[in-house]
Each structure stands twice: as C-alpha cells, then as structure tokens.
Specification:
2 copies of one chain form a homodimer. Chain A is of the alpha/beta class. The first copy, chain A, has helices at about 5-15, 25-35, 55-60, 65-70, 75-80, 105-115, 135, 155-175, 190-205, 215-230, 230-255; strands at about 15-20, 45, 70-75, 85-90, 100-105, 120-125, 140-145. Chain A has a 7-stranded parallel sheet.
C-alpha cells in the first residue's frame, strides 16, 4: 500500500473511537488495544474499568501498549461520548427496546462515511452482561456480528477485532475516491441530550408526562429523535417549539 | 436465523478445517477453538503443538472445549492435509516464493465454493515465524488479512477469528443489510399528513408559526419527521403531545 494511501486510510480511521464500558478483565483491554492497532485504530476510551491499569493489560497488548498509554479513562459514558455524532452499540443480546440493527459490514461502512463529519463511537459492554438499556438508548444503531446461533459468545477483544477489520476494509475501499460532503450534518450527543432534557421539562410543564413514570415514554421519544438524526438547524427549530410551548403553558398558569 | 437456514450454513462450514502448525502457546489453541465455534467452524487440526493438552488451552476455549476434545493431533502437515482439495496458507510475511495471493474476503468465498466438492484447509503457522517455505509450497493460495503496515502483528487467534468470520459471512450469503427492529412498522402517508396538519395547527396556536409564512419551517419539520419514520405508537405519542400543548395554550387564552 502506497504511503499516501496508507496516510489517507489512517486519517479516515482516526475519528473512530472504541469505548469499553466497565470491563472486568484487564487482559481484554490489552487484547482490545492490540486488535485496534493492527487494523489502524488508535482511539481507546475506558469507562470505569474494573481493574486498570494492570500488568495483564500490558502483556496482552503486546506491541500496542502505546494505545494503552494514550487511552482515556472516563467516569461516565456521557464523558466518553462527548463530541460523537454517531454512536454504535455492539450487543449479542437484542433487548426489549429494539433499535435499528446493522450487521458489522454495513455498520463499518456507515461509520466510515460519517467519520468524515464527526467522531464516531463504537461501544462494547461488559463481558457477561453487555450494554444496559440506558447505554443502548445512547446508540443510534445496534451492531450485530453474525455468529453461530448455538454458541454466540464472542469475547470482547474478538468482537473489537472483527469490527476493526471491517472498518479497515471499508477505509481502504474509500481510499481512492472522494466523497462529496452531504448537506446534512447530524449534531453530536451533547446537543441531543440538551434537546431531550428540554423535551422532558416541556412535557412536564404541559402535564403530558406523569412525573412518577416518565421513563418509558421518554425512551420512545429518544428513539424517535435518534432515528431522525437532526442537524443544528432542526435542533434549533425543535427547541424553539419547546420554548414557545413552555411560554404558552406558563402564561396559562400565571393568569 | 431459521433452523433450516442455520443447518445449511453449518453444512457449508463443516468441510473447512483449521490447521495450526507447531503452536507455541496453548492459550492460542484454546482461543482458536473459541473463535472457530462462535462462527460455526468445528474441525480443528494440530500439527505437533509445543505444549498440548494444557489447562491454559481449556481455559481460553471457554465454552468451546468440545472442539478441543475433538481436535485431531498430527505428527506431520501431510497427515493434517489428507483429503484436502484446497489449501490456503495465512501469512503476515510475504516470502520470496510467490504464490497467488487472495485477501481474506475473496479467500473465504473461494473456500466456500470449493467446500461443496472437497475438504478445505486453512493453515496458520507459528506465532513468531509463520509458515516455512516448505509449508507454503503445500498451499494453493496465500491469504492476506489487510492490516496496519506500521503494526501488522495479528495474533493467531485473531487471524483465525477474522477468517472464521469471513467464512461465516460467505456461508450465509448475505452481508450488507440493515434490519429494522421487528416491532417497528412506519405509518402510511395518510397518518403522516394528519400529523403534519395537527402540528401546523398547534404551532399556530402557540404563536410559534408566522401564519403568513409558514411554509419553510413546516417543510423542515416535515423532512425531519419523514426521516424519523414514526410508527403508529409514536404517531399517537406525538399527537398526544400536540393536543396537550393546544389545551395548555387554549387554557391560557380563556383566562
């Protein structure tokens, strides 16, 4: 692979971050770093790992311990996702709150397309329990790695390896074409969270939401708006509508 | 995946054997078994492994130790390849002995096509040194797994995982799909039009919309909600919110 081509592939992959949540075994963190580096990924984020740093992580990282050195530790998932415009969650178990599902290859393609505009996060959950419902609600898509229905227990590092491999293939496939920038740029997670907070408060103000049981409805709305992938303009419109709604309701209460 | 489909995939993969030559670390043999089973491969052959059997192999195999039980041990590569009509060798280092080279995806396709006629062997060499020239001469093709030119050191189990994954994808015959969540069925255009009419009226009621120039904003909102593809449940929620908003605003006007 020519040097210029390699540099371009590296650039496309630079904005894709791997986020491990609450990992139990430090060896899996090291193996993840190795799986990433061998495919050209470099941005590792750890949300409250159980035991880290640890010699086992360094051992399993092999020549990829530079990725471990640069790995960012976070106290919350929110922190780890800051600035990400696309969030993909990997999960073996398809839960009761269904999200649009992409297989690994398609997900990699989606990630590469969007990495031109904003950071992309790939979430991996706990070894045994995967991602919680709350964590999945932060995702735009779930990623399914096809596996043996009789034994589908992919180790975290193996799942990372497969995704990293698909990402590299996708990046190489893009290496000699230029994608026209689309006119649509979805906002990042911070903007979305502010929208959801504003939405929740507004729904309380107009007495649509039962303050003791808000979660299910909010989860549905969250899913709807995540599917819509609003851009900044649309966010501004939606928040303008919410504000006008709050004003109308408040005026009602003051009189 | 339906049972009949799963059985067909399993059948296609049954004639593909993974051959590990002279493996140094028993843990890699266990991890290989796991990587194989999770993708539906089952035929493992070991040519003079350094240390085997070993507790480390069983530990890393996790729930795939049945593959270890059934693994065949050989004194020579010739024995391990008996009956194989196609032999693919994986090697990070491309040696001086030129062989036709396939990337992992194409190699998997080739293996699947030929597995209908005869056994196929996938060779993996030693951790440090890969395959010898003599061993490569037994191969019809070399397989290259694309990797970071600056750090291409794929662990054996990781290489097996990627090949097994590509084989499964090839066996399944489909790779590039997006699955809508099973309970999600977008409403038809009649429902959407009613939503937009209700939305427009509500925006007028809360004085958010300029009645003389509503079109541009409504067009933006229409685009947003069309992108979201709401189902009936979500339509009901949205219209419930609109109604509650109208009630809150009307109450304001009556007092």
């Amino acid at each position: 692979m020519a040097a210029a081509e390699a540099a371009e592939v590296a650039q496309r992959l630079a904005r894709i971050r791997v986020v491990l949540i609450n990992t139990t075994h430090p060896g899996n963190i090291g193996a993840t770093a190795r799986a990433m580096k061998v495919m050209g990924l470099s941005s590792l984020h750890l949300v409250t790992p159980k035991i880290y740093p640890h010699a086992e992580a360094t051992a399993r990282a092999s020549g990829a311990d530079d990725l471990l050195q640069r790995a960012q530790l976070h106290e919350s998932l929110e922190s780890a996702l800051a600035g990400c415009g696309l969030v993909l969650g990997t999960s073996a178990r398809l839960r009761t709150l269904p999200l649009p599902l992409l297989d690994a290859r398609r997900a990699a393609g989606q990630a590469l397309v969007e990495s031109a505009q904003h950071e992309v996060a790939l979430l991996f959950g706990r070894e045994r329990y995967g991602l919680t419902n709350e964590e999945m609600q932060r995702c735009h898509f779930l990623v399914n790695i096809p596996s043996n229905p009789e034994y589908s227990s992919l180790n975290i590092a193996q799942a990372v390896q497969i995704m990293a491999y698909e990402l590299r293939i996708a990046a190489q496939g893009f290496a000699d074409i230029e994608l026209a920038p689309p006119d649509w740029q979805p906002v990042d997670d911070v903007q979305m969270e502010r929208l959801f907070e504003h939405l929740e408060q507004t729904l309380l103000d107009i007495r649509f939401l039962n303050p003791r049981q808000p979660k299910r409805l909010l989860a549905r709305l969250r899913r709807l708006f995540n599917r819509a992938r609003p851009d900044q303009n649309e966010i501004n419109i939606l928040r303008g509508i919410l504000k006008a709604t709050q004003d109308a309701a408040r005026h009602s209460e003051e009189t």
